[in-house]
């Protein structure tokens, strides 16, 4: 039998994906140029229509769809896939499946999946998508479920389309509502509702609290990467706080270590690193504001921006800074396996988050590599940095960040002291420690697999 039809079908699918990605990028640009209120109305209307359409089609899908040779059964006696763990996640790909992300959440996903596989279980990742597609993120299979590109529809689509496995992990705990498989683990990567739009009015605050409580009630247990989240939940619902397990983030201390003597570095230049995604929660606008001021005052200072732009707007802003300060502002994206090189190039790392922050992987990596760290006292960063001991903690304002950076630029002794203590602190957050704590938790739900 000729394989030509199969090749043609693959080409057609690839072409459709490229066209879908192109159309989605145009829609995305137009959408983000609209006023915030208009965006909210469009998003709410689109979600309502999509969920209604999906509900009508679900009966048809259920009658046709098979998974692993087993037809979908009645909800009262669901078929359970043995030897499998599902991870429901907002990423690692965009909704078209054409671009993958390289942030902290994606690194967490990858390391968690590797633990589960070493325990003898198969891992499948499910995320929102435009259309249905399949990819591999490194060695992990990723299924894009057609949610019309909406994150809000993922919960409904996922629970209608798949059977429960041995364990379901909701990489973002808020994905565990309205439905939730049992047993289940949710993960909180830090408080995301401390930003604008979540508590501007009393009604909005009440709605936010209820949206957080619902998935927490559904989950068997919740892993929090910081103590900030657990303490907040305790003030709202004491009983829910008992579901939490504190497993702070990690750093691979064998890879992320102080710069070796063989690595080239101009000691006459001080390099300030910003190793974050370029968008508002990570304080990108603060960096934009202080870069011209620092460069004008200190001719021996340069900036290295090591991250991905969130939208075209941030991309254009970075490119403009690179052009305006040629040679003194650099933008470079590093894959996971080379990220340590970014810290080796730097003397100071700045973590200027303004909301939605946990125990930042970037902060831990900088500390492990012996960078002097300037961080804002936001979210879980206070679990990592003790002000004046192993770094500097400041308010999330351009003035405070500039003052702290200038202090480190001018005081080499302080830089060296914070660098040494930061490296020592990072050893308590090693990847091996994190793996042991996660495996101990997973063993509560996953029996030992016999080969």
Task: Based on the model shown, name its key terms.
single chain; 2 domains; Rossmann fold; 6-stranded parallel β-sheet; 451 residues; globular; alpha/beta; 8-stranded mixed β-sheet
Describe the structure.
By secondary structure, the protein is α/β, with parallel strands linked by helices. It folds into two domains: 78-250 and 430-451, Rossmann fold; 270-429, Rossmann fold. Helix content is 43%, strand content 17%. It has helices spanning 4-33, 36-64, 104-118, 154-161, 202-218, 227-236, 238-241, 284-297, 312-324, 339-344, 361-368, 398-410, 412-426, 431-442, and strands at 66-67, 70-71, 81-88, 122-129, 133-137, 140-146, 165-170, 184-188, 221-224, 244-246, 270-274, 301-305, 329-331, 348-351, 372-376, 392-394. Strands 5-6-4-3-7-8-9-10 form an eight-stranded mixed sheet, with helices on both faces. α2 (36-64) runs parallel beside α4, α8 packs across α12 and α11 (361-368) crosses α13 (412-426). The longest helix has 30 residues, at 4-33. Residues 1-13 and 55-77 have low confidence and may be disordered.
The helix count comes to 14
Number of strands: 16
Shape: globular
Task: Please give the alpha-carbon distance between the first and last residues.
Answer: 37 Å
List the helices and strands and how they pair.
Layout: H1 4-33, H2 36-64, E1 66-67, E2 70-71, E3 81-88, H3 104-118, E4 122-129, E5 133-137, E6 140-146, H4 154-161, E7 165-170, E8 184-188, H5 202-218, E9 221-224, H6 227-236, H7 238-241, E10 244-246, E11 270-274, H8 284-297, E12 301-305, H9 312-324, E13 329-331, H10 339-344, E14 348-351, H11 361-368, E15 372-376, E16 392-394, H12 398-410, H13 412-426, H14 431-442
């Amino acid at each position: 039998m000729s394989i030509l039809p199969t090749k043609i079908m693959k080409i057609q699918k690839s072409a459709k994906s490229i066209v879908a990605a192109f159309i989605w990028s145009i829609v995305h640009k137009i959408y983000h140029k609209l006023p915030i209120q208009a965006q909210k109305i469009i998003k709410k209307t689109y979600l309502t229509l999509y969920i209604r359409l999906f509900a009508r089609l679900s009966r048809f899908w259920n009658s046709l769809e098979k998974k692993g040779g087993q037809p979908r059964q009645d909800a009262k006696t669901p078929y359970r896939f043995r030897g499998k763990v599902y991870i429901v996640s907002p990423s690692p790909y965009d909704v078209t499946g054409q671009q993958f992300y390289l942030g902290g959440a994606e690194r967490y996903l990858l390391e968690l999946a590797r633990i589960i596989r070493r325990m003898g279980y198969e891992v499948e990742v499910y995320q929102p998508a435009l259309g249905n597609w399949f990819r591999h993120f490194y060695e992990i299979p990723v299924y894009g479920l057609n949610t019309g590109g909406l994150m809000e529809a993922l919960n409904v689509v996922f629970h209608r389309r798949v059977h429960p496995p041995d364990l379901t992990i909701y990489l973002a705990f808020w994905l565990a509502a309205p439905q939730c498989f049992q047993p289940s683990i949710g993960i909180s990567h830090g408080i995301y509702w401390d930003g604008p739009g979540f508590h501007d009015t009393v009604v909005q605050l009440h709605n936010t609290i209820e949206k957080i409580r619902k998935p927490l009630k559904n989950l068997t247990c919740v892993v929090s990467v910081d103590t900030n989240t657990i303490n907040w939940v305790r003030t709202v619902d004491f009983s829910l706080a008992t579901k939490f397990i504190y497993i702070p983030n990690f750093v691979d201390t064998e890879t992320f270590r102080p710069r070796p003597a063989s690595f080239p570095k101009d000691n006459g230049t001080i390099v300030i690193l910003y190793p974050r995604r370029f968008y508002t929660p990570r304080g990108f606008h603060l960096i934009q504001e202080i870069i011209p001021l620092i460069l004008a005052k200190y001719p021996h200072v340069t900036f290295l921006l090591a991250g991905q732009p969130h939208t075209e707007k941030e991309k254009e802003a970075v490119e403009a800074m690179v052009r305006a300060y040629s040679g003194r502002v650099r933008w470079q994206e590093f894959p996971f396996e080379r990220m340590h090189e970014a810290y080796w190039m730097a003397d100071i790392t700045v973590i200027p988050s303004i909301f939605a922050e946990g125990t930042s992987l970037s902060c831990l990596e900088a500390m492990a590599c012996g960078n002097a760290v300037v961080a804002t006292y936001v979210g879980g960063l206070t679990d990592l940095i003790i002000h004046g001991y192993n770094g500097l903690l400041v308010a999330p304002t351009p003035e405070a960040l500039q003052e702290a950076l200038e202090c480190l630029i001018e005081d080499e002794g302080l830089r060296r002291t914070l660098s040494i203590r930061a490296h020592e602190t990072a050893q308590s957050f090693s990847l091996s420690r994190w793996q042991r704590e996660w495996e101990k938790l997973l063993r509560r739900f996953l029996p030992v697999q016999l080969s």
